Amino acid sequence: MSVSGDIERMNQPATETADVVLIGAGVMSATLAVLLKELDPEAKVEIVEQLDGAASESSFAWNNAGTGHAALCELNYTPRNKDGSISIEKAVRINTSFEESKQFWSYLIEQGAIESARRFLNPVPHMSFVRGAKDVEFLRKRFETMSAHPCFADMRYSESPEQIGEWAPLLMRGRKDGEPIAATRVDQGTDVDFGALTRQLLRHLGSLGGARVSYKQRVVSLEREASGDWLIELDVDHGKRSRQLRARFVFVGAGGGALPLLQKSGIPEAQGYAGFPVSGQWLRCDDPQLVAQHKAKVYSQASVGAPPMSVPHLDTRVVDGRSSLLFGPFAGFTTKFLKTGSPLDLPLSVRPDNLRPMLSVARDNFSLVKYLVGQVLQTPKQRIEALRDFFPEAREEDWRLEIAGQRVQIIKRDAKRGGKLEFGTELVTAADGSLAALLGASPGASTAVSTMLQLIERCFPERYQSEAWQARLGAIFTARAGQLAQDGKRLAEVRERTHRVLELAPQPAQV
Ligand SMILES: Cc1cc2nc3c(=O)[nH]c(=O)nc-3n(C[C@H](O)[C@H](O)[C@H](O)COP(=O)(O)OP(=O)(O)OC[C@H]3O[C@@H](n4cnc5c(N)ncnc54)[C@H](O)[C@@H]3O)c2cc1C
Fold first, then answer.
1. pTM for the model
2. Which atom of ligand 1 is nearest to the CA of 447?
């Protein structure tokens, strides 16, 4: 062995170890890291983030719509069945998943782990609003089906312009008479600043022994060792130095950046996955006079060919204690997987194993392509016209354009068609449970807690079933989503507690 070889090795940083490494400091990693520390306080946990702060990509407040998705207003969660009836299964699943999020946040507040809910969660009523006889009929039927379920028993319905105008004055002002309209309203909807939530979770995590968050550290490679551990190569401080971390378990919580890292991991379960990035834009208004006249999140129908995540909505947002209005999203096409990503992200993600699914999706989704081209070519005037469907008296000078985050939709293999495009989220896990990645973006941050609980169940099956972990989970979640979906009495009890702790008292109808 040569002396220079020894010196080289001495200059190389030693490989550090952790039980769990989480890639990305967004709401997903923050949620999982805090949950895992609750279950196993001794675990050595590290989050590594390429940017210089937390929640700077999709979890940043203005990069997403901040809707606490509980299926109280999103029409795409309740499709029509072939016989004309309304399917509410997905809505119930999302609603009860959001109840799990609320229980987790309530528990952390009660423990003093995070500060008051007002820093990240605000009560904002959720409304659905439709125009035209066909959509009115759909909304009426949807209301009848949903309000019969305990999850949605508080939903109200109206076809009266006066009532809808009382609920949301801007929707009705200047609207021409005659067109049938209808709306539903649930007072206990929420607006969530997922960025503020992430920062609170990470502050708490940093206060726990054996946990740390490291910034300006970009994961460049992931390799499984013969022992089954993962060796993670990091590029630190924009290439100034490198670092090696060894971990028993890795979570790829890299948002839009998850797909390339999953591909780097080489796990067979990653085969066939590809990503289709869709960028977003909002119109934003901070004029206090207008803002004071709208206190709701109002969702409507997506236009023909539009993907479900492009459903237009006019929202109250509460960020850093200040209210604003947001309208959108307007979609755009880009080849970047992250807002801070590279135009090469999409081309570099093409592999022999995902080429066929990608080509099949391109062939089968012409209406989506047409929709995106239409969106990209939209002028500022056309955007205001779209807003006027909601707020007929909207003036261009009151609104400005904001760039939202990136959503990388999932493309995966399909036995029949070769490939399919999905708009939900999907957990991809290694067979031995040593690595998990989260792909996709909807319903996203709202259901982070349920998704991370699923991950824990899949990747740590024995410990998840153990008495110790079940007891700890029972202290956080007095009832799980499945139980809440079946048991209205239990749901009411759980909501009584979480709404008290989270300060989600019902809002008055008029502002
Ligand atoms: C336009 C839009 C609207 C949305 N609206 C809503 C909504 O109303 N309600 C809702 O619940 N959800 C919504 N979502 C979804 C929600 O924002 C996301 O599901 C959620 O923020 C994802 O969190 P994350 O932690 O997975 O990803 P992110 O918050 O994107 O965090 C991933 C992090 O990983 C880091 N990273 C990536 N690659 C690497 C690497 N190689 N090394 C180190 N770090 C890396 C990134 O820098 C980033 O900080 C919306 C999303 C978008 C884009």
1. 0.94
2. 11
